[in-house]
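Might you be able to check the C-alpha cells below? Thank you kindly.
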Amino acid sequence: MPKWLMHGETREEDVVVSSRVRLARNVKDHRFPNRAEEDEAFSVAEQIYGAMQDKEDHYRRFLVRDVDRIKRRVLMEQHLISPDLIKNRAVSEYYLRDDEQMTLMVNEEDHLRMQCLLPGMQLRESFLQVMEMEKKIEETVPFAWHMEFGYLTACPTNTGTGLRASVMVHLPALKYSQQLKGTFDSLGKVGLVVRGIYGEGSEALGDMFQISNQRTLGFTETEAIDKLEKITNSIIEQERNTRNALITHTPTMVLDGVFRSLGILRYARVISAKEALQHLSHVRVGICMELFPEADIRKLDDLMLHVQKYTMLAYKHDTKQKETEDEVRAQYIREYFNKEESYGKR
C-alpha cells in the first residue's frame, strides 16, 4: 500500500479518496525550466538541495534520469510525481518524505512544486503542511514575486498564489444517474475544473474524478481552500443522496451490480486495467453500503492503484511472470479476494 494512503485520520472517504495541495514556485532571477539551459537548471536544483539540508523531516533525493522507466510511471500512477517531471528528466529531480505524503518536484514545469497528498477529506491539513514547507525553503531560496501579480509561474494560469488544491472523488451514483454533466458544468461556472485521475488530458477511470481550482490569481490561498472544501461537501451530499435514492428505488439493480462485479473479479482470467477499475468501483459502492462490514475501504483503494498499467508491469517484472499484463492482473485480483474473508466465501 502506498505510504500516503496508510496514514492520518480520514473523513468522508466513502466519496473523497484523497486530498492534495500543490504550490508552484520559481527561483528569483532564473529563467523558467522550459527556457533555461541545463547549467541554469542544475544551479536551481543545487539551491533547493541546500535549502533541504536542515529539514527535521527525513527526505530522500532522487534524480529522475536515474530512476527506472517503469518505476517512474509507477510513481506517477501513485500520484507522487507528475508527467511533466518525467518529461523533463534530463534536469529534473524530486524529494520524497519518508511517509510519502509530501513530495517536492524540482525543474518540472516550474523550478519547484511542493505537494502534500493525504487520504480522505483533508484539504486543510494538506494546505498547512505545504505552506510550512514553503516558508522553510523561502528562508534561503528567494522566490520570483511581483507586486501586482504575486508569485510568477511558467504557466500564467498558476500565477498569483501558485496554489492548486484538488480532491479525488468517487461518483458512481451521479455517473449512473446521468447527473455528472450538470454537476460539472456548474463547477466550471464557479472557477473549478474536473479532470481524470492523472490530471489534465487523462481519462476518468473507475468513476474517479479530480476536482481542482482553475485560477490562482485574485484571491488568497485560504479563500481557494475554503471554496473547494465547501463545494466538495456539496458534491458529497449530492452523491450520497443519489446513492440512497438508487438503493431505495432499485435495490436489486444495485446489489446485482455489486455482486456481479465481485464475481468477475474473483474468477476472471484476463482483465484490463480499465475493466478492473470499473468493477472495483462497484465493489467500493458495496463497502459504502455496508454489504461487507469487515472490508477495509483503504485496502480496496490500494488495490485500485495496484491494478493500473505500470504498477502491474512492475509487479510482473519483480515476480518474473511470463503471462500477459492482463493475465497477471486477473491473477493478482483473484489472490486478493481469496485472502480477504470480509467479502464472504467463494
The longest strand covers residues 16-25. Residues 3-241 form a domain with the Creatine Kinase; Chain A, domain 2 fold (CATH 3.30.590.10). DSSP finds 13 helices and ten strands in the chain. Residues 221-249 form the longest helix (29 residues).
